[in-house]
Amino acid sequence: MSHLTIGDDVPSFEEKDEQGTAVSSTLLLGKKYILFCYPKDDTPGCTAENCSLRDHYATLKDMGYIIYGVSPDNEKKHLKFKDKYQLPFPLIADTEARLLSALGAWGEKSMYGKKYFGVLRSTFIVNEKGKLTHIIDKVDTKAHAEQIIALLKS
C-alpha cells in the first residue's frame, strides 16, 4: 500500500473539490485533516464508507478534523453523489490520480484474474504541521468513522 510512514510530510498537492474549489496542502497548513481515498462514487463499499463518515461527521469535526474524500471521479459525479447521500464534507476530484499516486493509494489491483490500476482504499490523517499521524490501509467500509475515532482516541 502506501510508501509513506507516520511522521512523513503529506505530499504537496493541489486539486479541486466537487464545487471546483481549490484544496491544497499549502491551504491546509495549520489545520488537522483526514484524506480518505476510495475507488468510485455510488458503489456499495464506497457509499457505506462515505455514509459512515457522514454519520460521525460531527464527532470528527468536534475532534478538530476536516474530512476530505478523494477518488478519481470528476466534479460532476462527486456533486451528484454528495447531494444524493447528503455528505457534509468535500470530495476531491483527483481525475488524473496525482494525489492518490503521491499518497501511495493508486496501484495495481486484480479482479477475476484481470490486473488493472486503481485506488487502493486507504486513509491518511494529517496534523496542523502537515505531518502524517496515522495511515489506515485496512479500511472497514461500514464502520470507517468508528475505526478512525478509535485510532484518534488511542
Calculate Rg over CA atoms. 14 Å
Return the domain count: 1
Question: Got a strand count?
Answer: 9
Mean pLDDT: 96
Q: What is the H level of CATH, i.e. the homologous superfamily?
A: Glutaredoxin
CATH class: Alpha Beta
Low-confidence stretches: none
- The N- and C-terminal alpha carbons lie at a distance of 23 Å
Order of helices and strands: EEEHHEHEHEEEEH
With strands numbered from the N-terminus, the spatial order across the biggest sheet is 5-4-3-8-9
Strand content: 25-35%
Proportion in helices: 25-40%
Question: Can you summarize the main beta sheet?
Answer: 5 strands, mixed
Named CATH architecture: 3-Layer(aba) Sandwich
Number of helices: 5
Structural class: alpha/beta
Question: Please, could you describe this protein's structure?
Answer:
The chain is of the alpha/beta class. It has one domain (14-153): Glutaredoxin. 29% of the residues lie in helices and 29% in strands. It is built from 5 helices and 9 strands; from the N terminus they run βββααβαβαββββα. The strands form 3 sheets. Strands 5-4-3-8-9 form a 5-stranded mixed sheet. Strands 1-2 form a two-stranded antiparallel ribbon.
Short summary:
The chain has 154 residues and is an alpha/beta fold. The protein is 29% helix and 29% strand.
Reconstruct the topology from this structure.
Layout: E1 14-16, E2 22-24, E3 32-37, H1 44-55, H2 57-62, E4 65-71, H3 75-85, E5 91-93, H4 98-103, E6 106-111, E7 114-119, E8 122-126, E9 132-136, H5 144-153
Parallel strand pairs: 3-4, 4-5
Antiparallel strand pairs: 1-2, 3-8, 6-7, 8-9
